Amino acid sequence: MNIPAKTSQYYIREGFTASTGDRYEADKIYNVDPATIPDHAHKLEEVRFPSLSAVTQNIAQKVEAYKEQRQEISESPRYADNPAEREFLLKEISKQLDSDIADLEKKFAQEIELTEMDLAQASVKPIEVKTEDKEAASLVLGTLSAQLAFSSDPASVLRLFEKQVAAVGDGVRIEILKHIANIAESAGSDPASKEILRRIHATCADSHPGMRDFVTRSKHLDAIKRDGDPAAAYRALKAYEARRSGR
Known about the structure:
mainly alpha, 3-stranded antiparallel sheet, two-stranded antiparallel ribbon, elongated
């Protein structure tokens, strides 16, 4: 059976044009070998969803098996004197393929829902923070609270806080993450402050393994739901058959 080679998929964080002239758009997924675009490899995130890949591969296998069956029936001398039987069998295997692909497409959608649920659950899973990290976070947050209370320029205060967040470890950042909403309330609605706080939140969230995975892989799933087609091989086959039959 001739099954297409498995290729690696990558999510493009930042759009670019490769030296070959090929354009890779941001927030999309491509089959690509990072070794062929070394100058842009840092803009790629590997997409790994084994359950989704398994469904896509299963669809490709069904299509290839159907094509072999179709060729065997079409060319078999057994039906030379009975073309009606040949036509009947060809329609039957086509209907069976349609049914199989419909079931697999439903399974693909279900697997996406299950994967999203698993990621969401992992993102809120509590992480034990060391006592010294809690104490360090409390000290930093206490100082920040006082500075925001007396400053007329919250953005400047948050810029200094951003540097502190960059300098501390993951445990302290995870503890700070719990207080982001309170910080936002104290900082007010100044656009500059909101942007700084957005970056601080992203840095702290990145220190939480479950949250980091949730943010990254949710973007991958969104791209798959928007642009992906697990049954692309099936649709290409149907288009080919329609052209051959003149429909």
